[in-house]
Amino acid sequence: MKLTRKYKFIMYSILVLFSLYFLFPFIWALITALKTEGEVFSFPPKFIPDVPLFSNFMDAWNSQPFGIYFKNSMIVTVLTTIGQLISCSLVAYGFARYDFKYKNFLFILLLSTMMIPWDVTMIPLYMEFNLFGWINTLKPLIIPAFFGSAYNIFLLRQFLMNIPKDLENAARIDGANEFQIFYKIFLPIMKAPLTLIAVLNIILVWNDYLGPLIYLNDQSKYTMALGLASFQGVHELQIIPIMAMTLVMIIPPVIVFAFAQKYIVEGISGSIK
Amino acid sequence: MFTKKNKQKKFTLVRKRVPFLFILPWIIGFIVFTLGPLVFSLIMSLFDWPIAGEAKFIGFDNFSTMFTADPQFYDSLWITLKFALIFVPLNLLVALVLALLITQPIKGIKVFRTIFYLPAVVSGVAVSIIWGWMFNSEYGVLNYILSLLGIEGPNWLIDPKWAIVTIVIASAWGVGSMMLIFYTDIKGIPHEMYEAASIDGAGPIRQFISITIPTITPTILFNVITSVIAALQQLTLVLLLTGGGPLKSTYFYGLFVYNNAFKHHELGYASANAWFMFIIILLLTMLIFKSSSAWVFYEAEVKKEKKGGKGK
Asked: Do B112 and A18 count as a contact with CB atoms less than 8 A apart?
């Protein structure tokens, strides 16, 4: 009994210590966002502001077109998620439930694309999108999502491989065509892995900085990530609004994560097996 | 009879085409957004390709410039390797320790799991802003806390010796996703294995070395490969946290390529740089895979044999 208490004490101490590393920067950002100008630059630093200024958030939001940035990020995130769900479920289904010529070759090709560093295709992609007239629009951030992504396809395919073959054979005898089988039978059972893909995509796209940095020029087209970074670049010393908007930016992925934590924890184990 | 045969023929033809219809989106995307640009970038690497004006074929000149006449190439390569050498083992170790911690059967452990994972869902932009403020040498809270412990903190982002450490600390903040991969794998190990071992008199450390580690070697391999690739391509944090400075001490390879392309507008040269890194990544991945047969144990191989024995 004594040993377990000692063990528990040590465990909790280690856990709390690590928690400080992961949690304190968020708390410090929040404290900073609620301070007055004088408090931010005082020494020693104040851990509790005299009067927490929640109005700092509104002031920061209105100081730049953050409403537009937020809307652009929403558009890109929602549309890419729809695109990924449609394209990846179709492609994964094709790979998992059919036998066809060159299947293994194509699948290995798909997996190997995950190893290509993004800067190898960065320049030609820019030129290609320029040719399409897509530069300084949200299109280069959205449209490729409708053609699938290797990791998501792989994840779904692993899931679909584990479903018995009898399922579609029974439906075929009943006279369902191939697309109906996919749409009416398989899509509903793919709910959990599709949710995982949606969540991973939302987090990835909402947070993306390099894509918007390369393809967007006008402030009116900026996403949250790019808008915030450029705001910080220009007004480096305005720590309070910067921190406030940083916190606003991290709210959507944190909410999504809070609702979908179960899917992430369970889904990851399926992906690597 | 004749029509029936014909019908069947038509049916098999459709059946043959159907799978390709399903994977068509990926095939189109692969050609337009991956293969095409990949080939084009290889071609560009053989050209002197300014952003405006005529592109000129120069053979392997870009590569020879890179290897013989550009000291920044070697500097950036070395900084990036140094970063990977610190970051990858550290990240793996921390992820593994955290995963072991959150598999402990104690109260409230799920809360800690959430806390540890939280920074992994946060944007690189937010990470760099938050840590940049933590590390600030004048008003930063980190050095204040260190001073309370009697330690004089370094000028994190100003001192060339410490800037790379700041990048390591800020990137390790997102260790949660790797932790989660280890966690699900460790949790999947059957309890009986540990019970049997403890009956045989194996202590917790012994159990960890002879049960946990061998079972999760495929996951370790997966994590090593993904984190090496990620470390060699680190760019967002460098762009935002240090901008490559001070004194180019964090001028990572990704930044080198990015600046050659979009700042100096030497598109051909940047393509050559990028292809070099691509080849390095391919070679490294192959090397890690080759070495893996010596230390990775696949459960599936055993399972397959068992299944084969039962018959299908």
From this structure: yes
